[in-house]
């Protein structure tokens, strides 16, 4: 991201430099023309000199219009680059934790299954209490970054956009294309699928 920001800033700086140089060149030309105008000595009846003055004034007007136009173009370019940079930063803030979260989800789900498995051993239960605390902390961290479990359950309609069918099975309990069982839940990061839910689907 730092490299992208630097690249965009470099482009902005280059555009600003070019705009300043163009403005300086045009303004210098305008000053030269104005000096020429002031140096022209005319008589009231000298039509030729009057025409020259008019032409010089027209050139000055065109140069002023060009300066105004170029300023507008440069400002628009800078505004567009700034908008693009802000959009990129917003996307990174929103989805920047996706790769790390994806790596953590499988061991996180495995830890949850260990804790949820029935166990009457008192010593093991003590460990499970500690595991539960870890699970809650990880879950809070996920939610703070916009990551949530889909909460897929048997009976839901299969949707290939968010579900992955591990197996097609015959079922008397569920209609066709319904989820029969959930092997592992899926996860979303804001409005994007982070991990598809792995499910068994009725034929």
TrEMBL record:
<dbReference type="GO" id="GO:0005737">
    <property type="term" value="C:cytoplasm"/>
</dbReference>
<keyword id="KW-0963">Cytoplasm</keyword>
<dbReference type="Pfam" id="PF01025">
    <property type="entry name" value="GrpE"/>
</dbReference>
<dbReference type="InterPro" id="IPR013805">
    <property type="entry name" value="GrpE_CC"/>
</dbReference>
<dbReference type="GO" id="GO:0006457">
    <property type="term" value="P:protein folding"/>
</dbReference>
<dbReference type="GO" id="GO:0051087">
    <property type="term" value="F:protein-folding chaperone binding"/>
</dbReference>
<comment type="subunit">
    <text>Homodimer.</text>
</comment>
<comment type="function">
    <text>Participates actively in the response to hyperosmotic and heat shock by preventing the aggregation of stress-denatured proteins, in association with DnaK and GrpE. It is the nucleotide exchange factor for DnaK and may function as a thermosensor. Unfolded proteins bind initially to DnaJ; upon interaction with the DnaJ-bound protein, DnaK hydrolyzes its bound ATP, resulting in the formation of a stable complex. GrpE releases ADP from DnaK; ATP binding to DnaK triggers the release of the substrate protein, thus completing the reaction cycle.</text>
</comment>
<dbReference type="InterPro" id="IPR009012">
    <property type="entry name" value="GrpE_head"/>
</dbReference>
<dbReference type="GO" id="GO:0051082">
    <property type="term" value="F:unfolded protein binding"/>
</dbReference>
<dbReference type="GO" id="GO:0042803">
    <property type="term" value="F:protein homodimerization activity"/>
</dbReference>
<keyword id="KW-0346">Stress response</keyword>
<dbReference type="InterPro" id="IPR000740">
    <property type="entry name" value="GrpE"/>
</dbReference>
<dbReference type="GO" id="GO:0000774">
    <property type="term" value="F:adenyl-nucleotide exchange factor activity"/>
</dbReference>
<comment type="similarity">
    <text>Belongs to the GrpE family.</text>
</comment>
<keyword id="KW-0143">Chaperone</keyword>
<protein>
    <recommendedName>
        <fullName>Protein GrpE</fullName>
    </recommendedName>
</protein>
């Amino acid at each position: 991201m730092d490299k992208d920001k630097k690249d965009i800033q470099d482009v902005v700086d280059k555009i600003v430099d070019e705009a300043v140089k163009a403005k300086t060149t045009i303004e210098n030309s305008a000053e030269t023309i104005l000096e020429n105008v002031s140096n022209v000595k005319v008589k009231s009846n000298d039509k030729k000199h009057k025409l020259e003055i008019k032409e010089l004034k027209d050139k000055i007007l065109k140069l002023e219009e060009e300066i105004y136009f170029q300023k507008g173009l440069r400002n628009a370019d800078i505004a567009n680059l700034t908008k693009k940079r802000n959009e990129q930063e917003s996307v990174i803030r929103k989805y920047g934790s996706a790769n790390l979260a994806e790596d953590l989800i499988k061991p996180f789900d495995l830890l949850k299954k260990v804790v949820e498995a029935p166990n009457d051993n008192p010593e093991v239960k003590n460990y499970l209490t500690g595991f539960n605390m870890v699970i809650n902390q990880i879950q809070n961290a996920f939610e703070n970054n916009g990551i949530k479990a889909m909460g897929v359950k048997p009976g839901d309609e299969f949707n290939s956009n968010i579900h992955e069918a591990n197996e097609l099975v015959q079922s008397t309990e569920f209609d066709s294309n319904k989820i029969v069982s959930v092997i592992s839940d899926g996860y979303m990061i804001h409005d994007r699928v982070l991990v598809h839910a792995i499910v068994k689907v009725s034929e």
